[in-house]
Write a structure and sequence with these properties.
This protein is α+β, with helices and mostly antiparallel strands and about 600 residues long. Helices cover about 60% and strands about 10% of the residues. The protein is built from 19 helices and eight strands.
Length: about 600
């Protein structure tokens, strides 16, 4: 069990030393604070500069090219630097808008060619209005009362100029007017080139400004830390010259807090959680399966007095993913991709935990693919070593159904068994053990398929399990008077209604078989299509076959990845957690500095 034990702490000090004490607690970063009074509305200090700094920081973080940042100790005129970055952002946006407008105008004008319009006074105040008219709409020109002229012709289009001092009516022709403007095409292209130069110069300046991103990030983190300290200061209990705060601390950090309190001259009380307390949950599984904790906390936080399912989630997710992908060739591609991006996946602790999970998924999937004897939908030659290793046939419906249901029974048995252990001595233990007996008896009866002696024995176990479920449900209901016993009887009967849910959840594990079979069938189908495409034509047929193989297996691999992740996690989050985690908690959030946790930034 890797749920870290907690201790409730009460810390008392002088009101005049609040700021220094809170700053020290932030540096320590081990306390999950408990509000002792409702805080008021908190406004950030200098909100305008904060918003502009956040905008500037995002602009630098999104820069396509970043230079090595200045050291955090470099002198920074925050207002001036932020002003320049925001101005650079606005200029880039303006230049890009101008580039887009010029590109659109050039695309419209290119079909008309490079020409200059004569001054309006030179043609008697008349103006030229241009329309790109489909040849099929040529009869519409006969209805135009204004002077017009076909000035060009394309394969499917007539280029028509209409003469009028004012813009013609919208319905003068069955097409909208071409917005050519008065600037010649050549001038527009020059303007576009100048705009591109200006964008490049602005991007170069943006890259130079990225040297400030670490300093600005630290300023933002410091400001957020300051806001949090002010917020916490409003949540303490104050009595004239003394204040008190409470919180939760991991048991292995109590010594650090005691040293801090002794240095500061603070009063500190450390207590064990009482039965009425609900401490936060901090998972600390072994490093090898730490990503299992990430997956668990992504969906829910186990209650403090529950148990840590991280290891089970890690192992079962890898197994489920492997059964859904069900191909050694696809798994090898996943392994190669993980190896290629291995160094990039090591920049942060979260990424390092993730790459361990990815490597495990690839490894387990490859082993299962070997056992299934599937390599991109192809099977090894009979009598070969690979063929002898292949002991799983995903097309054997009976065997795969038995395997999938058996995995479901085993998975839920682990969940129920853990619930029985954690809640030993209560009705929940009796209920959990009753469900274990029920599902195993039902599973064995299904496997027995009519064997009289075995069926009779398992039937007894099945009924005994249901009785235990009812008894356990009744034990959870308090009261020994007549009304209490009635409630107990009703509670026991209601507990039995879970039989449809538990067997429905077990049947959900058939998706492992169905999705694995679908992946194998699609792979084989794409192989057959490729053979048909090739036919007897070694030229174009071979090329088409390669295209079908690459696209087909690419799509199948993508579908397998999506199905493996979605359904592999679903069986853990929905089926397993619903029987294994009876209570939900809330995560441990340390009162710590953001600036201290900020990652180092390197040049690209």
């Amino acid at each position: 069990m890797s749920i870290v034990p907690m201790r409730r702490i009460t810390l008392c000090g002088l009101v005049g030393e609040k700021e220094a004490i809170f700053a020290g607690l932030q540096d320590l970063g081990v306390v999950h604070l408990i509000p002792l009074r409702q805080p008021g509305t908190l406004a950030p200090e200098d909100p305008v500069l904060r918003r502009r700094t956040e905008t500037a920081f995002r602009h630098l973080e999104e820069a396509p090219y970043k230079l090595r940042p200045f050291r955090p100790t470099t002198d920074l005129d925050q207002a001036a630097v932020v002003e320049e970055i925001v101005a650079n952002r606005a200029r880039l946006r303006q230049l890009r808008d101008r580039r887009d407008a010029l590109e659109q105008r050039i695309a419209t004008l290119e079909q008309w060619g490079d020409f200059s319009l004569p001054p309006v006074d030179d043609i008697g105040g008349q103006r030229l209005w241009f329309y790109a008219l489909p040849i099929s709409e040529r009869p519409a020109l006969k209805q135009v009362e204004l002077p017009w002229q076909i000035v060009g012709k394309g394969p499917t289009t007539l280029f028509v100029a209409v003469v009028s001092p004012d813009e013609p009516p919208v319905d003068v022709l069955p097409v909208p007017r071409s917005r050519t403007g008065s600037v010649p095409l050549g001038d527009l292209r020059v303007g576009l080139e100048d705009t591109e130069f200006a964008i490049e110069e602005a991007e170069v300046r943006r890259a130079e400004l990225t040297r400030w991103r670490l300093a600005l990030g630290l300023r933002l983190a410091d400001a957020a830390d300051s806001d949090e300290r002010r917020a916490v200061a409003e949540q303490t209990y104050d009595d004239e010259q003394v204040f008190a705060l409470q919180g939760w601390v991991p048991v292995d950090a109590v010594e650090k807090l005691e040293e801090f309190a002794q240095r500061r001259g603070l009063a500190l009380v450390v207590e064990e959680p009482s039965p009425a307390d609900r401490p936060p949950t901090l998972l600390r599984p072994p490093a090898q399966v730490a990503s299992g904790a990430d997956l668990t906390m992504f969906y829910t936080s186990p209650a403090y007095r529950s148990w840590d399912p991280s290891l089970i989630v890690f192992v079962s997710f890898a197994a489920f993913f492997a059964m859904i992908v069900a191909d050694a060739g696809y798994s090898a591609i996943i392994a190669v991709l993980v190896a290629v991006f291995w160094s990039r996946l090591g920049k942060t602790p979260a990424l390092r935990r993730g790459r361990v999970l990815l490597a495990t998924l690839a490894s387990v999937s490859f082993v299962y693919g070997l056992l299934a004897g599937s390599w991109f939908g192809l099977h090894p030659p009979a009598g070969s070593l690979m063929a002898r290793i292949a002991v799983i046939d995903v097309r054997d419906f009976d065997a795969m159904m038995h395997l999938s249901i058996g995995i479901g029974v085993l998975h839920l048995t682990v969940a129920l068994g853990t619930v029985a252990w954690v809640n030993r001595g209560t009705g929940k233990t009796v209920t959990a053990l009753g469900w274990i007996a029920t599902i195993w008896a039902g599973f064995l009866m299904w496997l027995g398929e009519g064997e009289t002696v075995a069926t009779s024995l398992t039937s007894v176990v099945f009924l005994g399990g249901l009785v235990a479920v009812a008894v356990g449900g009744a034990m959870e209901q308090p009261g020994n008077d007549a009304a209490g016993w009635g409630k107990r009887a009703l509670s026991g009967i209601l507990a039995l209604t879970g039989i449809t849910k538990i067997f429905g959840d077990i049947l959900s594990y058939l998706r492992l078989f169905a999705l694995g079979l679908a992946s194998a069938s699609l792979a084989a189908t794409f192989n057959s299509l490729a053979l048909e495409m090739r036919g007897d034509n070694p030229g174009i047929g071979t090329l088409l076959a390669i295209v079908v193989l690459v696209l087909g297996h690419g799509v199948n691999l993508l579908l397998g990845l999506m199905s493996g992740v979605v359904h592999g996690l679903r069986l853990n989050f929905i089926e397993f957690f619903s029987w294994g985690l009876t209570d939900e908690g809330y995560p441990f959030r340390a009162f710590a500095r953001r600036a201290a946790a900020a990652p180092s930034v390197h040049a690209k």
